[in-house]
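[job 4417] fold queue: 2 targets
>>> target A
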Amino acid sequence: MTGARFTTLGTGTVALSGERSCAGYLYEADDVRLLLDCGSGITRRLAELGVAWSSITHVALTHFHIDHHGDLPTLVFAWKYGQLPPRSAPLELIGPSGTASLLERLAAAYGDWLRDPGFPIKLREIAPGEAVELSETVRLSAQKVPHTAESVAYSIERGNRRVVYTGDTGPDDALGDWARECDLLVCECSLPSSMAIKEHLTPEQCGALAARANPRHVVLTHFYPPVERVDIRALVGEKFSGPVTLARDGWSIDLTGT
């Protein structure tokens, strides 16, 4: 792979569906295998899609709702007990302020193996506006978004290619400005306008965000069932005329170039 690949592992929500797992996305480039969120069903999707799950190098959480981290203990348990030999390579766990406390609470529930699974876990809390070098070629940065107190969006940069993942968010002009001219805007699209709430986006609001950000390609995800009963593409198209993909679990795109 000369460029990078982005895969939508889980495009659904906690409205349980056989077709859509909870949130999870995989970014692969060079020696980086970055899992963005790890909601329920993501470990199954990794196996179904033939992803080399044992080689994931980083996990980055956007916030602490269970549909975005529910399979993290399962994944760590799989690395420890689900392969021979067990994992020895270090893992970097990244998340907003409070991630260390989340890991402590999960370890209190599941056991100390989650803190100390037999391979090093480097935990890094990332602040909005901060950037982390994942490797010599890949950089991750964070932006505050309006969903929960800790929620962040992520930007992944490699060479002249940039992917922005909104995580869960409500309408936010600052997010659109921050995502300006990215190659891929992976954007939540949770609810129809008839059910709009300030913590999530409707298709119309996705269109407005895309119009402000002007990405090369918009990928919509995080669908609750009611939003799939409206014409999402047409509603987004009222504000944004560029390419729009309604993602499914297992959809992927190659980001070629340097």
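>>> target B
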Amino acid sequence: MSMNRSDKSVVSYLSDFLDWIDVEKGLSSKTQENYGRFLKRFLDWLKKSRLENIKPHELTSDHLWQYRVFLARQLSPKTRSPLKKTTQNYYLIALRALLNYFAERDIVSLPSEKIKLAKDKGERQVRFLTLEQLGKLFSAIDTDKPPGLRDRAILESFFSTGMRIAELVSLDREQIKFSSGTQELELGIIGKGNRPRTVYFSGRALSCLRKYLATRNDKEKALFIHYRSKKNASSRLTPRAIEKMMKKYAITSGIPLFSTPHVLRHTFATDLLSKGVDLRIIQEFLGHKSITATQIYAHVTSKKLREVHEKFHGGNELKS
């Protein structure tokens, strides 16, 4: 199929691109919002560089390089320090998606492979908790009152299912169905990228959910609610509220302050892998579209295996 040179500027394609990732790619509204925000910075840079009328086929590798330099010199509005490499990559990934859009629409432009992501080995580290640290975290919660029962149920659910925080906060009470003798619960959810998958609540997590839900006398739809809601406002817990809650317990229990709901997701994955569960099965549990995303955990377990090998299989007892 022949490619066409567009008469329209790159800037004018933003709306069409967002429609494309919605309809053709099925990305969530939050992802669409983020892509729009990340691309707006590129479009603003084009205007500042007096390139607002540049057409897709006029983009060059030099333009991409200049934009990367621009990103590297940007300061975070919160910290006033240079943008992290991971943050710079968000902007570059959005630009890659725009170039992929041009390719799918048979519009002449640079191939997306021309955009190389910034590398930062330190930021690729997978952070997770040991089972001992996890025990300390759970023990720091006072379960004598409903908020504590709720918090314990939330953290147990994270560790049991490996769910993302957005997936957990969207759960409704009616989805949790108890039956006599139930030891586990399988639950179908719609995850990132509108991909369906099954998550599993352990007996421990179910026990915590039972105790928490027994305190609920309200008619709220949400599974997890806060207890200080304003009149006519939703009582559903927000991701931010859960992150603050977990940070509070991390401080109380003395575990690493990097502990977040996503760290519990990492802990879920690394715990299963350390017990010999296949990486492809972990991919299904986590809802990763590609095995590449799951392979970050393999590095963790490989390191652990090496440490075990060095400790227990040194051959020191053999005589030379």
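[job 4417] complete. Note on B: The two ends are 68 Å apart (CA to CA).
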